[in-house]
Every structure is written in structure tokens, then in C-alpha cells.
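Re: that chain you flagged

S.,

Sorry for the slow reply, it's been a week of failed gels. I finally had a moment to sit down with the sequence you sent. For the record, here it is as I used it:
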Amino acid sequence: MRKLLYLASTAALIACGSSKETTGIEPDASVDYAEKFAKSITAKDLGKHLFVYASDEFEGRDTGEPGQKKAVNYLKDFYKSQGIASPLGGDDYFQEVPSEYLSNNRRGRSLKDSENVVAYIKGTEKPDEIVVISAHLDHEGVKNGEIYNGADDDGSGTVAILEIAEAFKKAVEAGRGPKRSILFLHVTGEEKGLLGSKYYTENPIFPLKNTVTDLNIDMIGRVDDRHKGNPNYVYLIGSDKLSTELHNISEAINTKYTKIDLDYKYNDENDPNRFYYRSDHYNFAKHNIPIIFYFNGTHADYHQPSDTPDKINYQLLENRTRLVFHTAWEVANRDKRIVADKAK
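Prediction finished late last night. Pasting the C-alpha cells below so you have them in one place:
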């Protein structure tokens, strides 16, 4: 009964909006600001980004290789064009990840210098508290003369962050910027063993104790075989493992705004796939930072050269991206920081 009452109160808080908490500005009660800015996230814009980001020109974005360098510059140019700052200051959007670090943590061949891409929006009231939205920027590169474009893995998560960042920037421009700071974190070396996120959590730009949550997006543009008859779904992994509050917020947000079937199949502790341990959120979870991992499951094109942008379902990608935005908006704008009540 206590959980039901908590869910009801969480849903009620979200339903009536948190815009006064967000800015201290008396809100127009007739406007749902979260919904207003979420509408700027569109299938059309996601597609425009992804047909570039997962094109042959980027050569599969292999860690440290020329195609990956093109990819990070594409991300940097986007943030500069939007007037979204780097937390590193000035024109520096790259957290350098040296080859020594990558190679020492990688079994097999040595890797070249690479970089995480970082951009952020400073919070209006609690700027030292950080909401991280992450996705990996790399993929498999070129193998046997074939380009592995990685449109779903993880081009879909990468372009989702770009659209989320743009939506938050529009909020700032309208005087409705988030109460807490938002870090847009594109990590390298995920395919080599979660190395870019490992490097970030070992060399954080903002103290990990100030990091409220990591919302990690890794493959949200396709439909797996299990959901052929119900494509309006997304797998959520880890939302309840460290914070009951984060899980309940996620559920309530989805009910209000996006109405996606939230599938927790891979959240099972006994999941043989062990997906909870296989994407970048896990390096945050190891530090007792609450996380959610958004995932559409694997498909026939997973880690194949056939993972191309023409196969993405852009309407699904739009709605799933909006779910992440709405969740980030709520966590960033709540009066109190969410609690990691299950920290290990």
C-alpha cells in the first residue's frame, strides 16, 4: 500500500508540473513546459542527424580511427551551433582518453588516442548537482572491407542526446532552464569494453558525489523479434536497482507523456544476457549513482554491416527520445535530489 501511495503522489506531482520549482518564476498554469519543449524532438531531425552520423563517411566510428574523429567533430560542431557550452571551457568539447589508458584496459591490439565529447547546460538553482545523459559514440569500424555503420548501435542513442540537448537549450532560451545542470556525455570505446565511461568515472569533470543520475541510451531505434506485434515498447534496465524513487518517476512520466510499454525482461538479476553490466551506465552504477538504461534489444543487424540508418523506425525513436527527455526534465527540476535508497 505504501508503494501505491508513493506512486500516486509521484504521479500527482508530475501531473501538476514542477515548473515553479524549476525556475522560481511563477509559471503559466495553462502551459506544460516539459511537453512544449519535448515537441522539438522530432523524427525528421533525428533522421537528418543519423543519416550523416551513421553514413559511410564516418567509416564505422572505430575507436581512435579517422572515422571516429569525424564523428566527434560532428558532435562538437552541433553543440557549438546550438550555443551549448562545454564544461571544459572555451572551444574544448573533448575529454581526451589517451591510448595508454585504452590499451592497458583492452585485451588484444593497442588503441589510438580517443576522446569523450562533453557539453552541458548549467542549472539555474542547483548547478553543482549533475544529471548525466549518456550514449556511446563509437562502433565497430571497417571489417573485411565492409563498413559497420552502427545506426542503431549506438547512432540512435547519440542523435537522441543531440535532440534532447536542443530541447533543453530551447527551455533555457525561454527562461525555463533546468534547476540542476545537465551533462551531455558521448563516450568512446564502449565496444572495446566500456572504456570511455570507465575513464570518465575515474576522471570525472564533475564530482561523482554530485552526480544525481545517469540516463544511458544504447540502441533505441529498432524493434526486436519479441515485439514484432507490439513495437511501442522499450526495455528499461536498472531503474529500480539503486533508487526506488527514480523507478517510480520513470513509470509516472511514461504514463503521463509517452505511453510506451516499459519492458523489464532484461532487468532480471538472472538475465543470462547480463545487459545490465554491458553498457556505459554500469560504470556509474558501480559508484552507487542511480541509472536507467534504455534499450530496444538485439536484432538480426546487431553488430553487422547491415545496421544502417534506413532501417531505423524514426517515430519510435522520437517517442523513446522524448521519454528520456521527460525523465531528465523531472529529475533535474524536482525540489529535492532523488535518493539512492538501495545503494550497495
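What I noticed first: Strands lie at 94-97, 114-121, 126-136, 141-143, 146-148, 180-187, 211-217, 233-237, 261-263, 291-295.

Talk soon,
D.
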